[in-house]
Design a protein that fits this description.
Length: 800
Amino acid sequence: MDLVVTVTSKGIVDVWRLNGQKVFGSNFPKDEGKSGGVGGNAGANKSAGGNVRAVAWRRDGQILAIACADGSLSLINTFTGKIAHRISSRNQKPLPSTSSPVPSQTQTPRRSSRIHSFPTSQATSICRTITTIAWTTHFVDPSPTTVRSHLNAPNSTVVLDQILSLRADVDRLLQLKSDLPRELSSIDVEVSLPKLATLPPTGLGADDDVFSSRASVDVLFHGGSNTGSGGVGGVDALLVGSSDADGGCNVQLRVFDSFEIGTVDLKGIFPSGLAIGSALRVMRMESHPFMSTVFLIMEQSPKDEAESSLHLLSLDLSFIPQTGRNLPLVARKVSQLGNLLRYISQVRTQLVAEIKAAFDLPGRFLRNINESLAEGDEDADFIYAAHHLAVTGVCDPKLKDWLVDEVGDRGLKRWENAVGDCLEVVRRMTSECLLPALERSLAVLSRLDGLAKFGPTSSKLGLDERNIKRVTETIDALGILGEDLLLDVIVETREFAAFIKWLKWECEVEAMEEGSERAEEVRESWTGEGELRLVLDYVGGAIKDSRLKKYLLEEGKAQEGGMFASFDDDSDLGFYTEYVKRRASGSRGNSMPTVGELVDRLQRQCDAVFAQIAETLRKSILSSYLLELPRQCNGENMDIRVIPDSIDPSLYRLFVLSKDRQEKAHLQQVVVKLHQGAGKGVQHTMESKSLAIPNVQEIFDAKFVDDDAFLVLAETGSDVKIYWKEISVDGEGSWDVRHVFQRGKIDGVMKPVRLDVNGRVGRRVVAVLDEAGLGYAVLDLDADDSPGDTDSGEDELMTE
C-alpha cells in the first residue's frame, strides 16, 4: 500500500493513496493555553506555528509517528487508522552522565560516555519540544553478517528492501537452512488462545477507542503488529529528539513502538566547554540495518546570535548485538503485556462506570419510598414493606401509591433496563474480556519467566525471576476475583429477574380496583411462587447493597495493614497465598481487594519489571562525539545516509548532502568514513566537497534515493528540474535530468521547493512540495526514464 501523509497548519494529518483517495485522517489542534516553544535559539519552533512538528513513517509503513508542539507523540497504525499509542510530553529529565575522554583515532576530538541509570527521586519533570523523530531498523536474527553475506552472494537476486518489507519471509528470501530448535523457540502460544472481544468506545479522547474495533484488537493482540520491518528477529527503534527551555537536548529511545528504553542527555556528550551557553537541537538521525550505531547531526546555536554549527554524534546501541535474538522476543512480550494492561485497565474503568450509573435510578426510587414509609414508622422501609407484601400479600397503602403513581410501568421498565443491562454488561465483560485478557497475560509472563530463569539471558535483559513471580501472583489473584465476580453476577441476575417480574405483577394488581373480578383473575394467574425465594433474597440483600460493589467500588473501603505491602517488600511473595487464605475463610468484606486495587497493583509491578529491563539495556548504550561538520553545511536543508562498503564488511560511509550557506547554486557533500574495529567505538575520517550543477542558479533541496543515487531539485533560469546523480566519494559523475517543471511551476500554479523520496524497489516515488504548502506532485521514480518521457510525463497531483 503506497501512502502519502500531509499536514496542515491547523494540525490536520491526512493519509492519502497516490491516486488522491483519502485513507484516514486525524486532528491534532493546537492548545492555545500551552506553549510549545523552547527558549534560546534551539529552533524547534521555526515552522510556521502549526501544532504538528514532525512526522515519520516506520520503514515498513505500518506505523506513522506524529510529534506535536506540546512534546506529545502519537503512533498511528495505518492498518486501522487509529492511534495505537499516545506518549505524554512530561518526561523525566536525566542527570548528566559521567563521562571520560577516549583517545581519538583521528585528528578530531572524540568524547564517549556510557548511559547510566538515574534514580527517580533525583529526576525532575520538564516539558520538552520535539524537534525531530526517526525510525531505524537493526538486524538481530538472522545476524547482520548472515544477511550481508547472502545479499552479496554472486547468484543472489534479493535486495535489502525485500527483507525489510512488511512480514517478509526472511528465511525463504535468504534460503537459510532450517533450524528446528530456533523455530520451536519462536512459536507463540498466544495465537492458539481465543481472540479478545472488542470494548465499547469510551469517547474520552482520540486514543481511547483503540480497543473498540475488531481490526484494532486483531492488530494489537493477534499477530498484526508483532513483526516490524526487521522481520521476526529484527528491532525497530524509534528515536525522538527534543529540546527544552534551558538549552538542553535529549533523545528518547523506544523499541517495538512503545517500549521505552530511556533518555540520553546529548549536551553532556559534547567536549568540555563546547556546548556551554548554547542551545542544541537534533536535526537528523540515521542508521543502517547492518549496524547497531545511530548517527545524529546536531545544531549548536550560540546565544550571542553567532552563526550556528553542526556536529556529528553517535549512539551505539550495544544491547542489540549483546542480547541477540532474545531482545525482539522480550520487547514483543513486554509490548504485548503493556497493551494487555491497557485493555484490562479500560475494562475495569467501564465496569466501574456501569455499576455507578446502573444503581442511580433505583437508588432514587428507594430513597423516596423509604422517606414516605418512615413518616408513619421510623423503622419501616422498602425492604420491610416488600418482604411483608411478598409473604402475606398485604400491601402498605404508601407502598401502593408509590408503585402505582410514582414508579408505574414506565418506571419499572427504566429500572429493569438500567439494572438488567448493567448486569449483562458486567457478565459479558468479565467472561469475554477480563478473564481472557488475564489468561493471555499469564501466557506472556510464562515466556518472560522462562528467560528470567536462564542466567545468561536474565542478566543481559534485566529480567528478575522474583519480580515476574510477583506479577504472576497478582494476575492469579485477579483471575480468582474475576471468577467470583462472574458467579455473583450470575446469581444476582437471576434474583433481579425474579424480583422485577414480581414487582411488575404487584404493580399491575395494585393498580386495579380492589375486589374487582379482573384483580382476582390476575392474582390467580400468578405462577411465580417457585421464584419467591429469589425475590426475598434480592429484597433482603442485593437491592440495598449489590454484590458487585464489593468487587468494583472502593468508596468507604478501609484497607487493613499488611494486606497490600509495597512491591519491594519480600512479604509480597506470599500475596497469592494470603489472598486465597482470606477468601477461603469467608473474609469477603473490606479486607479483600477490589478489581481496581488489584489492577493498580498489577500496573505498579509491571512498571517495575519494565523499568528494570529498560535500565539494564540503557546501561549498555555508548554515546560519542565524533566531529564538527563544515561550516558551509545548512542543517535546514540536509539529508544523510549510511552506506556499507561492498567489499570491507567493517567499513561504512556516512554521506551528508546539504545546501551551501554561501553559494546557493552549490551543494555540499560530506563523506565520513566509519570503520568498526574489534573494540568499542568507531574510527572515522571526514572529507567534503562542493558540487556544482551546470547552468543551475539555485538548489532548493537534495535527497538520497538509495545507496546508489540521489536527487537534486534546482532552478535553471525559467525552469525547475530534478537531477539524478550516482553517489561517489569524490563527487564526480554526470548529472541527468529526470523531470522538468515548465516555467518553474507544478501544473502551472505551484512552485516546487522541497523533495521527499520513499518507497520500495520497483515502486519508489518522489513527492515534490509547493513553496506555500498548497499542494504537491507525486512522481513515479521507477517509470520509464527514457529522454522522450522526461519532459512530457504528467504528474500525479493533489492539492489541499
